[in-house]
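User: I've been going back and forth on whether these two constructs are worth ordering. Before I decide, could you fold them both?

Assistant: Sure. I'll take them in the order you sent them. The first construct and its structure tokens:
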Amino acid sequence: MRYELLVGLRYTRARRRNRFIGINSAVSMIGIAVGVWALIVVLSVMNGFQKEVRTRILGVVSHLQILADDNRLEDWQALQRMVAQHPRVVATAPFVQAQAMLSNGQAVRGALVRGILPAEEEKVADLARHMRAGSLDALRPGEFGVVLGVDLARSLGVLRGDKIALVAPQGVVTPAGVIPRLKQFTVAGVFEAGIVDADAGLALVHMQDAQTLYQLGESVSGVRLKLDDLFAAREVAYQLLSQLPRDVFASDWTRSHANFFRAVEIEKRMMFLILGLIVLVAAINIISTLVMAVTDKQADIAILRTLGAAPRSVLQIFMVQGMVLGVVGTLIGVVTGVITALNIDVIVPAIERAFSIKFLSKDVYLIPDLPSDLQANDVVWIASVALLLSFLATVYPSWRAARVNPAEALRYE
């Protein structure tokens, strides 16, 4: 072992004449540990929230959609067969989508009506597992059944088996003027996807019923695709664009919900910067600790210099002393942060029971429980930043120690 490392470790363990230096060292170490712990836990929770919401969104929205400019795709069967040949496409399903007004007595609500083929729709979306009443199989051609989002059904005051009126924007021209197209539908089921846009504004009907209602003939609005990797959606969309007709385009899930996911990414970066200030403050505390240690050890530095130690060796001794605080603090923070992030589903309910509080109320928040998704990349980045700040904090005090003049330091000893 080099003597610089040996002396630096000895200074870290030794009892100090100035107890304030020891307290300051402990505070610096605790500060780094708390900062690293908080960063790992908060970023894991935000990753978990993003993953949970993404899963819920993709339960309603497909990975990729092939759409026509005028919302009318003519030769969709050939197009469906063509896109299904892409190696990343797992399943495809045609759909019809349009706006409508739903009414039941005095209650009237606007909704997005989506015509689907239940057997094929289950391959590209997870709506079947979100059903609270009935099933998608209850949608049969010619029976004019409808499956409503839970909030939409509640606002209309309907249950399974009730009748509602659906008013399409396309009207019928008569001598008395344009009369809206109106059709009575039977509520065949209710789903709860956990996404406000779907639960409060989406109505599912059979595709043939939607084609009849909106006078589309054999045309559809588009084709929904499911991929083997949802993160490859943008790449696949660009690859398919070159094969699609001029008036047809591809839209992936990252474009349809771009603002939400961009906001989450910005929040993650801001939280990293804000909580990183805790680590920065602890690193600055290391500077003050080492400056006081250099002042306290001036006689020792002078003796080492007279024994032949080079200024570089003195610099390394105090850098070792400062880095020990950073490494130990980072290690404690990483271990406690990883344990907390992996067990947050146990820790949070225990705190809620102990103090009779509820962090996320089901009536207010989309996700009532704190999800966690610990990612090794985040842990590595956080630990690296903490160690880098700790290293930078040792440079100035160690440089001051290396410049101590032995004669001046021993003059009054």
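The second construct, handled the same way:
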Amino acid sequence: MTEAEPLGHAERIDRTRARAWALQIHYRWESASFDGTLRDALVDTTATRRVSPRRLPYIRRLLSSMEENLSEIDAYLRAALDNWRLERLGTMDRAVLRIGAVEIFYFDDVPPKVSIQEAIRLAEAYGGPDSPRFVNGVLDALFKVHREQAK
């Protein structure tokens, strides 16, 4: 893994907001009334909501990586969940965990600790009262797995 170049303030803000959009699109995708892929959910969302063009590349990157690697991501998450089943988690918590896991395992340009911190922020904004601590614990366990695999 190579050391990523630091992002400028505007790019950090764009990525933070792109993660929030990815979370909303994931929510739409998992809702009972939506029938289609994550890409379809993105197209559907951008048809009715204005998303900054600067954020779309990172949203697409997150969602396509999630879709391509969903079974592996979910396997990592299942292994890290003590006494929980992934399917029983709330939609928002599951989405936040998946976004964090995608960045930890597939995005070498995002430091894992940044991914965890950003996921905690999403959990604070969109999850329940216990979500931030829960997300932190699960993603920290994934980070340790990732670090071991990188050795």
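Notes on the second construct follow. The first helix runs from residue 9 to 30. The chain has one domain: 9-150.
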